[in-house]
Design a protein that fits this description.
Order of helices and strands: HHH
Helix content: 55-70%
Radius of gyration: 12 Å
Shape: elongated
Number of helices: 3
Number of strands: 0
Strand content: under 5%
Distance between the termini: 32 Å
Number of domains: 1
Length: 41
């Protein structure tokens, strides 16, 4: 299936999906509880 390829290209180009994903408070809390460190947390 080639559908996910379009999503990956757009995420690489604009980081839209990653920004939406990391703006969710539940995702941030989960990543912090797993000891992920990144500037966007």
């Amino acid at each position: 299936d080639q559908g996910p390829i379009i999503v990956m290209i757009e995420n690489y180009r604009s980081k839209l999906l990653w920004n939406l994903f990391t703006s969710c408070p539940e995702v941030k809390a989960g990543m912090q509880s797993l000891a992920f460190t990144a500037p966007y947390l």
